[in-house]
């Protein structure tokens, strides 16, 4: 069980093999995944932050992966609680009617404060290589945490990740972040700034939601280092270096702020461009039983594609970039 769950893993990486294949093979393998009906699970809880002695009340919604309607064939859902290290604390089987199961778990078995997870799956889901099980992150604050709160200094740190999975030098990167303490609890940002190695502020318009999750855009120069200064709403100040970007590669930046269209910017730098400019790449946009593939080459360093939102599937749309060998490299 992954204890640091921040960004979703894209399903297509497990459906499509990394061996070379044609355009039609990608579509065929993706379509074959939907030959049999599949379940999709969603968990709703009474809240996300809990105190000692409380219980988690939850509902599990089971949907058909094609129709997004209740999966009526499901009769039981398997649920469990896991601590931050992936150890199972509690488990149970819950009856499902019209695609909905309800239940509760006591939190008395959790030994320490911090992040824990509620998991949902089914017996039918185990028939497939790619699980559609659902994992929800929750937080528990026990008395020991309150009693010892004044006797230790809480540790805060920032997780950084580039949109698409990595950072690339000498291009504009979309960088996501999450601010946590040592228990995995998120903390909201009051203000932030980024300095280069000349001690010049190059970015100061940074914000997060109440869980400490946000993102910013930054042109990462290969001849510079970057230091992040965050001030939290609780008054704590954090100082942390940005991760080193890759020297060569391809990057992805998605702009979803326009009300009519989504802009996808696929870019590379000068060190990479001569190596890939004549090679064919594929951009896949997909969800459920629908997939769209667009082929292109890097006749210029930046490729910008715009898609009208009315032409995309309602809800979440997933994106994967394939290189000239049909290997998925960004998602």
How would you describe the overall organization of this protein?
- By secondary structure, this protein is mostly beta strands.
- It folds into three domains: 36-148, Immunoglobulin-like (Sandwich); 156-241, Immunoglobulin-like (Sandwich); 250-330, Immunoglobulin-like, CATH 2.60.40.
- The protein is 7% helix and 46% strand.
- It has four helices and 22 strands.
- It has helices at 12-15, 23-32, 143-148, 273-276, and strands at residues 39-45, 49-51, 55-64, 76-83, 88-97, 100-106, 114-121, 134-141, 156-162, 172-181, 189-195, 201-203, 213-219, 227-232, 237-241, 250-255, 261-268, 280-287, 290-297, 302-308, 318-322, 328-330.
- The longest helix has 10 residues, at 23-32.
Which labels suit this protein?
Immunoglobulin-like; 3 domains; eight-stranded mixed beta sheet; disordered N terminus
List the helices and strands and how they pair.
Layout (H helix, E strand, L loop, with lengths): L11 H4 L7 H10 L6 E7 L3 E3 L3 E10 L11 E8 L4 E10 L2 E7 L7 E8 L12 E8 L1 H6 L7 E7 L9 E10 L7 E7 L5 E3 L9 E7 L7 E6 L4 E5 L8 E6 L5 E8 L4 H4 L3 E8 L2 E8 L4 E7 L9 E5 L5 E3 L1
Parallel strand pairs: 2-8
Antiparallel strand pairs: 1-3, 3-6, 4-5, 4-7, 5-6, 7-8, 9-10, 10-13, 11-12, 11-14, 14-15, 16-17, 17-20, 18-19, 18-21, 21-22
């Amino acid at each position: 069980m992954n204890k640091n769950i921040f960004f979703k893993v894209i399903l297509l990486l497990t459906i499509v093999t990394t061996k070379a294949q044609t355009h039609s093979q990608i579509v065929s393998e993706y379509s074959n995944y939907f030959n049999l009906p599949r379940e999709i699970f969603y968990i709703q809880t009474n809240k996300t932050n809990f105190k000692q002695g409380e219980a988690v009340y939850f509902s599990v919604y089971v949907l058909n992966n094609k129709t997004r309607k209740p999966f009526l064939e499901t009769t039981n859902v398997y649920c469990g609680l896991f601590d931050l290290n992936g150890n199972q604390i509690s488990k149970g089987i819950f009856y499902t009617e019209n695609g909905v199961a309800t239940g509760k778990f006591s939190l008395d078995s959790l030994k320490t404060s911090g992040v824990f997870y509620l998991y949902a799956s089914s017996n039918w889901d185990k028939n497939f290589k790619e699980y559609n099980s659902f994992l929800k992150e929750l937080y528990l604050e026990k008395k020991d945490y309150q009693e010892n709160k004044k006797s230790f200094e809480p540790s805060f740190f920032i997780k950084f990740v580039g949109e698409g999975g990595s950072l690339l030098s000498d291009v504009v990167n979309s960088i996501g972040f999450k601010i946590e303490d040592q228990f995995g609890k998120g903390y909201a940002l009051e203000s932030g700034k980024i300095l280069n190695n000349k001690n010049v502020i190059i970015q100061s318009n940074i914000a997060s939601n109440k869980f400490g999750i946000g993102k910013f855009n930054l042109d990462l120069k290969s001849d510079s280092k970057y230091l992040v200064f965050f001030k939290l709403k609780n008054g704590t100040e954090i100082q942390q270096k940005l991760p080193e970007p890759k020297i060569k590669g391809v990057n992805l930046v998605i702009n979803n702020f326009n009300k009519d269209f989504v802009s996808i910017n696929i870019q590379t730098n000068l060190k990479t461009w001569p190596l890939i400019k004549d090679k064919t790449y594929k951009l896949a946009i997909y969800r459920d039983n629908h997939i769209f593939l667009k082929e292109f080459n890097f006749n210029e360093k930046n490729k910008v594609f715009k898609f009208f939102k009315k032409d995309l599937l309602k809800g979440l749309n997933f994106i994967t970039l394939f290189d000239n060998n049909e290997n998925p490299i960004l998602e």
